[in-house]
């Protein structure tokens, strides 16, 4: 079990930044981040998430037109912007990822099932990325205010991947954040049956 400092890092004291420090994120950190994300469980080890890490100014400028106005400054200032996507054809890797099961045919025969599985498990892997980023000392800002079609055309057209959300990564300026927003109580959000 994690001690209180580990729980603070991941949950209790972790905050979502609004501004970023001018401190780069090394490629080796992004590689280690993915290594941790890849270890999180997915249905049948399907691992449908795909990630595009935008670190340079050219990529940022390609992304800018896709951002909603309220997100431009928060996103463009991040050292890394990850496009969290999923591969609708994830099942082509199942013979390697889940070799003891014949799962490929299930998804190849049912486009709706394949898309639902890819989206659900890709989203799960995106959440793993937030937690892995925090564990590595990075801050994370998930963004859904963007035009999906523009992102897919600019960054994913040659892959067939589908964009889910953006995840800004880096070292946040957290000193001037307002108090944490309220959360629902256990009794409001949970049922015991």
Q: What are the defining features of this structure?
A:
two-stranded antiparallel sheet; NADH Oxidase; alpha+beta; 16% strand; 193 residues; four-stranded antiparallel β-sheet; globular
Please name the fourth-level CATH homologous superfamily: NADH Oxidase
DSSP E strands, number: 6
Q: Shape from CA axes?
A: globular
CATH architecture descriptor: 3-Layer(aba) Sandwich
- What is the CATH T-level topology? NADH Oxidase
Report the major sheet. Answer: 4 strands, antiparallel
In spatial order, strands of the major sheet run 2-3-5-4
SS summary, helix count: 9
Mean pLDDT: 97
Total domain modules = 1
Please trace the helix and strand order, writing H or E for each element.
Answer: HEHEHHEHHHEHEEH
Oligomer: single chain
Estimate what percentage of residues fall within beta strands.
15-25%
What level of helicity do the residues show? 40-55%
The rounded distance between the terminal residues' Cα atoms is 26 Å
Radius of gyration of CA atoms, rounded to a whole number = 18 Å
> Which ranges are low-confidence, i.e. pLDDT below 50, for 5 or more consecutive residues?
none
GO molecular function: oxidoreductase activity
Protein name: NADH dehydrogenase/NAD(P)H nitroreductase
InterPro entries: Nitroreductase (IPR029479), Nitroreductase-like (IPR000415), Nitroreductase_HadB/RutE (IPR050461)
Organism: Acetobacter orientalis
